[in-house]
Amino acid sequence: MSRIGKKPVDLPDGVSASLSGQIIEVKGPKGTKTFTATDDVTITIADGQIAVTPRGKSKRARQQWGMTRTVIANMVHGAKDVFKKELEIRGVGYRAAIQGNVLKLNLGYSHDVDFTIPDGVTVTAPKQTELVVEGTDKQLVGQVAANIRDWRRPEPYKGKGIRYKDEYIFQKEGKKK
Predict the structure, then answer these.
(1) HEC per residue, 87-100
(2) Model pTM?
(3) N or C: the chain end with fewer CB closer than 10 Å?
């Protein structure tokens, strides 16, 4: 049984939710989000809480139960606050700069990498070696941060590359004589 799905989602002040069929819409100061749930779950809104229950005991219904509750909780959080991923760039000469809607990365290639920032996400560079990805959609923020990180993943010998701020890279010893 889903432990996550059992917990109802509390609606904070300034956030409202409406339900029409299997489509739930969450409105807040940061924006409006909609989600279409599968027919395997039932969504109810009562007393400032959103509850999700499975329809039946099938494996798919139990899977969708916890996933739907988590997506709704992320929508409620995104309507009130923003999600943030912090990246840091390590390496000699590695740097980032933002020019309009394009993130320019200098990562040791023979050319600069131009990364177009998608709508719904803001990327800032407080320093040349730090990036902050922010937005109201948790999935989109994580995907953009992962796409930026994929241009130069941290390597295990010197640790050069783009890493998450709290990420630990296990350092290998290297060759011995």
Answers:
(1) EEEECCCCEEEEEC
(2) 0.88
(3) C
User: Residue 8: enclosing H or E segment and its boundaries?
Assistant: none
Q: pLDDT digit string (tens) for 31-88?
A: 899 999 999 999 999 999 999 999 999 999 999 999 999 999 999 999 999 999 999 9
- Other CB atoms closer than 10 Å to residue 40's CB: what's the count? 19
Name which of 52, 81, 76 is nearest 64 in CA terms: 52
Q: What are phi and psi of 102, to 5 degrees?
A: -125, 135
- CB-based burial of residue 18 (10 Å sphere; 0-12 exposed, 13-18 middle, 19+ buried)? exposed
Please tell me the distance from the alpha carbon of residue 137 to that of residue 172, in angstroms, as a whole number: 36
Q: How many CA atoms lie within 13 A of 19 on its CB side?
A: 13
Cβ count within 10 A of residue 127: 10
